[in-house]
Design a protein that fits this description.
Layout (H helix, E strand, L loop, with lengths): L2 H12 L5 H14 L7 H9 L4 E5 L6 E7 L4 E5 L6 E19 L5 E12 L3 E4 L4 E17 L3 H8 L5 E4 L2 E4 L5 H4 L2
Antiparallel strand pairs: 1-2, 2-7, 3-7, 4-5, 4-6, 4-7, 8-9
Protein name: Cysteine dioxygenase
InterPro entries: RmlC-like_jellyroll (IPR014710), RmlC_Cupin_sf (IPR011051)
């Protein structure tokens, strides 16, 4: 049995509704996955192929998904949340800076983000984001290989429930994309 199979079995054995225990257990399983020697065939292939995104596992019963991403140095993903879903990022190689944000509302009802801070997530480290947490990612040492563990299929979630929120920069502020003037969304 390889480390990827052990990861899947480990997560399946602790899976349940969102709780501190489930998140900690999944994070522990990812911590173990990050210790995989680069000589394991599945990881060697993944590093050699260096695909922008590759699905590693989709659980047919519980719905969780493990994706692998290879990101070039400098790649920036603007602030976003994962709607009702939660996610754990695990950096296998390289370094990603992840910023966190709070959503604030002005007296006129307009919403903007205020940056709380940022964390450098290096090889062998993980970072958890719970439902509604707003964050961005910036590859500062790459190419980086990271795993993104999501408790549900986020593409399906976005398509069906429209619960994910993306932000766009407007007048030096990050604002919800759906709050922007239509001409700003074309860029």
């Amino acid at each position: 049995m390889n480390s990827l199979s052990r990861f899947v079995e480990g997560v399946q054995s602790i899976w349940g509704p969102l709780s501190s225990e489930v998140v900690a257990g999944c994070q522990q399983q990812l911590d173990e996955l990050l210790k995989t020697p680069v000589t394991e065939p599945w990881l060697a292939d993944l590093r050699q192929q260096a695909l922008a995104q590759q699905e590693m596992y989709r659980d047919p019963v519980n719905g969780f998904v493990l994706l692998a991403h290879t990101e070039p140095e400098g790649l920036y993903r603007p602030p976003h949340d994962h709607g009702r879903g939660w996610v754990i990022y695990a950096v296998q190689h390289g370094e990603i800076e992840m910023g966190t944000y709070a959503k604030v509302q002005a007296p006129d009802g307009q919403v903007k983000l205020v940056k709380r801070g940022s964390t450098r997530v290096s090889a062998g480290q993980t970072q958890v984001y719970l439902p509604g947490d707003i964050h961005d990612t910036h590859c500062i040492c790459g190419p980086a290989l990271l795993f993104r563990f999501t408790e549900r299929d986020l593409k399906k979630e976005d398509k069906e429930a429209r619960k994910l929120t993306r932000y766009i920069e407007q007048d030096s502020d990050w604002v919800p994309a759906n709050q922007c003037a239509p001409e700003l969304l074309k860029s």
